[in-house]
Each structure stands twice: as C-alpha cells, then as structure tokens.
Amino acid sequence: MPEPPTQPSSDPxxxxxxxxxxxxxxxxxxxxxxxxxxxxxxxxxxxxxRLAGERGEQIAKSxxxxxxxxxxxxxxxxxxxxLINEQVQQGVDMVINLAAGLDxxxxxxxxxxxxxxxxxxxxxxxxxxxxILRDEKPMCFPERISLDLSNASARRDLFAELGRRSKxxxxxxxxxxxxxxxxxxxxxxxxxxxxxxxxSWILDIASPGLLxxxxxxxxxxxxxxxxxxxxxxEGPNFFLPYGWKPMDVRSLLKxxxxxxxxxxxxxxxxxxxxxxxxxxxxxxxxVCLLKKQ
Length: 293
What we know:
By secondary structure, this protein is α/β, with parallel strands linked by helices. It has a single domain, classed as Vaccinia Virus protein VP39 (Rossmann fold, 3-Layer(aba) Sandwich). It is 43% helix and 16% strand. It is built from 12 helices and 7 strands. The protein has helices spanning 23-36, 48-62, 70-89, 105-108, 123-133, 152-165, 182-192, 208-217, 220-225, 252-258, 264-270, 276-281, and strands at residues 94-98, 116-121, 142-146, 169-173, 198-206, 244-251, 285-292. A 7-stranded mixed beta sheet has the order 3-2-1-4-5-7-6. The radius of gyration is 18 Å and the shape is globular. The model is unreliable at 2-13 (pLDDT under 50).
C-alpha cells in the first residue's frame, strides 16, 4: 500500500522529485493537462495543470520515456470516464475512489448531483487537492476521507460503513494496484467483496511483459520511491478467486489507436491481434470492469 508521506528535506536540492507514491499523482496530472490543452482533446480537465504544479512538471520532464508515454495515461483516463458514466447510468449511487490522488472527476464530469463520491487517500495529498480546488464547484459533492489503505482493519471498517450508506457502489482504483504486491492486491480484493452493496470495480492492470519493459526504461527515482510490482500472470482473471469477475477488458493500446494518440510505429503494433497469451507475454495494459460474483 502507499507509504505515508515523508517529511520534507531541509535542503530542497537534495530532495528527490518523487518522494513517495503520492507524488506520482502530480506526474499523472500533467498528462491530463496536456490532453486538455489539445484542440482535439478527448476529455477536458481544466484543473489538471494547477493540480500538477511545478513538481508535477519537473517529474514529467525527468522521465526517460518523455512524451512517448502520454497515450497510455490519456487513454486510461478516457476509458475510466467511459466506464464510470456507464455504471452511473446503470444505477450506481456511490463511487468510492481509493487512492484518489489528484483525480478531479467530480468537478469535470457531467455527474448527477445526487451521486455520492467518496475519495480515500493519505491526508497530505487530500489537503493539497482541497486547497487547489477550494473555490471550484463540483458537479456532485465529494467526501474526502484520510486513510492509509495498508491499515487492513481501518479499511474494513470504512468499507463496512460505506456499504451501509450505499445501495449500489462502484469502486475505482486507478493507478493504485501496480504499486502493490500480489498478496496486498488479493487482500484488498477480498475486503472489497464483503459489503453487499459493492457491485462493481474499475481498475487498471499491466502484464508481466510490460513490467519487464518498464523496469528497464523507467526513471531510477521512480523505481526507488514507488516501484512497480503488480502484473499477474493470470491477467484480469487474478481476481476470480476473491469474488470478482472480469466483465469488460479494454486494451489501452487498441483504444489509443482508435483515439489517434499513437505514433506511426505504435499504430502498427496496435494492429496485432490480442489473445490471453499476448496479454501476458507482450507489454500490455488495460482498464477492466469487474463485477461482484
């Protein structure tokens, strides 16, 4: 689970850009800002540039992949928006965003005012977001809960409470699971399966092949402060023993090609057929909708 935020260094020049998992939220906000500023943007997040701040820009510039990775983050956001809208239209009355980071969906998406939106994360990142967005009006009012999700007892208590307050809840873990190990993901999945009202779960998942590639290409500071861990051989079927069934698996590469966000070379790769074996062996990632079994 994400580590508690570290104390700032007395020497700002000695402090790493990525101090902990929370700082990756600033990095990801840069991608949303870049898409928003395009004339042909597939979504708009007018808050992303402010939320990213100077640290987010510095992190993005420090990454060896540069802008070659824009397409994956942009597509992940786009697919998440799509799936959330679909689930809300099917009667979801509460969205529970775990490790919500700097996500601004309650402010930028057209959501019903009656929708309950609960954001759970560490206090530092939630306080930072609250400060940036304090004068903005959300479409549905988010409730922010400070919690270290690695505290299994505390999260079970929270899930039980949210379960009592909802009739049909959607859980989101965008950008979280890759930082956990398989046992931690399994424990979280089992806990989320307990409340009867927790009906669906949107998550993103990477293949072992992608993890191997990223281990070679990712910035050293990210590998040290927030290493990537979770990329199960079983793919989305990893969650079956824990009460969750994959209902919709959407490839980032295939959808990025459809959205015209790939280079020529990557567009050629997107033409290759996908199978369960290729999802495991090749660098692959996707956004999945799981349903309670």
